[in-house]
Amino acid sequence: MKKHNYSAGPCILPQEVFEKSAQAVLNFNNSGLSILEISHRSKDFVAVMDEARALALELLGLDGKGYQALFLQGGASMEFLRVPYNLLKENGKASYLDTGTWAAGAIKEAKAFGETLVAASSKEENYNHIPKDFQIPADANYFHCTSNNTIFGTQMKSFPNTNVPVVCDMSSDIFSRQLDFSKFDLIYAGAQKNMGPAGVTLVVVKEALLGKTGRNIPSILDYEKHIKAESMYNTPAVFAVYTSLLTMQWLKNLGGIPAIEKINEAKAKLLYAEIDRNPLFRGTAVAEDRSNMNATFLLNDEAHAEVFDKMWKEAGISGLPGHRSVGGYRASMYNALPLESVEVLVDVMQKLEKSI
Ligand SMILES: *Cc1c(COP(=O)(O)O)cnc(C)c1O
User: Fold this and answer.
1) Are 351 and 279 in contact (CB under 8 A)?
2) pLDDT tens digits along 293-323
3) 33 CA to centre of ligand 1 in angstroms
4) Does 222 score more than 90 pLDDT?
5) Residue ranges, CATH 3.40.640.10, the chain
């Protein structure tokens, strides 16, 4: 039986995407060849890459607006490094918002390159909220933020209005909600949270931003080289790109981001209502900053953990334990998780309450 998969990443993808990608492993496009054994330069795969790049921009409403989409390797963690390499000038400075473990990881890499200022941090409160009042230096080369904090269950609901270029790590909420994406100059997202299997990262960058640092950038780290090579500077992660394309096609057929946003809001509303109502549980993130993707919550009395864990496992739920830095539980409700899975979890929480 298919599980209700709350894994934070790699995570659930639409069932039809699993089926179509499995079919492509056996016989891709009726070619008599597996997607795993064809050249990335073959006509069939070049078409996949072209469509994936175009569809990413289309879904974000960024086609024809001076942006390029790339599918690169090294995970979102590689972009922690590639961003300063490409955007931080030799004697420039960058401004970062520290909202969690991943944001802190990005700051650490930027510090190796130059002056890296932390505009604000919620670390002292174990990242339970998004800092609101902060200044971005007008002469910063860029401002970096993390739209959704996968581990701590917080999500930025608004973004600063600034003339400084905005870079955003959207790994765990890409394609999940409507935003004016043209306010961002560079967006990146590791596929394995909401788009595809591990092994590929979507980078969407405004072309005019590049080539201004005066740095000598190693080729593999140079966004301009990847753009020039149409995201085939070296062998791309063929299977991960193909599966990401299938997920984007699924999303487009569903009605795109506006349609999935409604479903994501319904799922989050249902679960947070139960966390707030049920006297056995409490949420860990400040309510106004709660993530619609990752809901983090605790049992008020740890003594109930054994019974609760047994109950949700018996209900076919998987991947619910929280990250070790928060403890308790984390329900990751990415795009492909159906509302029905949240109903099953809420039902288990109510049964636990009745059993006590
Ligand atoms: C998971 C995650 C990362 C790290 O992604 P990798 O692909 O493992 O490098 C970075 N940022 C955010 C917000 C994440 O959720």
Assistant:
1) no
2) 999 999 999 999 999 999 999 999 999 999 9
3) 33
4) yes
5) 15-254
pLDDT at 235: 98
pLDDT reading at 55 higher than 90: yes
Residues of the chain with CATH 3.90.1150.10: 256-355
Q: Residues lining ligand 1, CB < 6 A?
A: 9, 75-77, 102, 146, 150, 169, 171-172, 190, 193
Pocket test for ligand 1, best of 150, 195, 291 (most atoms within 8 A of CB): 150
For atom 11 of ligand 1, the residue with the nearest CA is 102
Supply the pLDDT for residue 1: 86
Predicted TM-score (pTM) of this structure = 0.98
Share of the chain above pLDDT 70, in %: 100
| Res 2: pLDDT | 93
Distances (CA, A) of 182 to 13, 65, 274: 27, 8, 35
Please state which architecture CATH assigns to domain 15-254: 3-Layer(aba) Sandwich (3.40)
pLDDT digits (tens, 9 = 90+) for 207-216: 999 999 999 9
Ramachandran angles phi, psi of 295, nearest 5°: -95, 120
Superfamily of domain 256-355 in CATH is Aspartate Aminotransferase, domain 1 (3.90.1150.10)
Q: Distance (Å, rounded) from C-alpha 98 to C-alpha 144?
A: 9
**CB distance 141 to 185 below 8 Å:** no
Ligand 1 atom 3, closest CA: 76
| Cα-based distances in Å from 235 to 104, 230, 301, 317 | 30, 11, 51, 37
